[in-house]
Amino acid sequence: MKRFFLCSVLLAASLALSSGKDGRISPRNAEAVLSESKLRADIEFLSDTLCTGRKTGTPGSVLASFWIGNMFSSIGLEKVSDGSWYSSFPVSDGITGRNVIGLLPGSSRKYVIIAAHYDGIGTLDGVLYPGADSNASGVSAMVRLSEMLSYMARLDGPFKKNVLFVALDAKLHSMEGSQHLYKLLRYGSLKDPVTGRSIKLEDVELFVNLDQLGSTLAPLHRWRKSYLIMLSESGSPLRAALEKAAEENSLAGMELAFSYYYSNDFTRLFYRRVSDQRPFLEGGIRSVMFTSGITMNNNKPGDNALSLNYTVLKDRIRLIYYWLIPSL
Question: N or C: which end of the chain has fewer CB within 10 A?
Answer without folding.
Answer: N
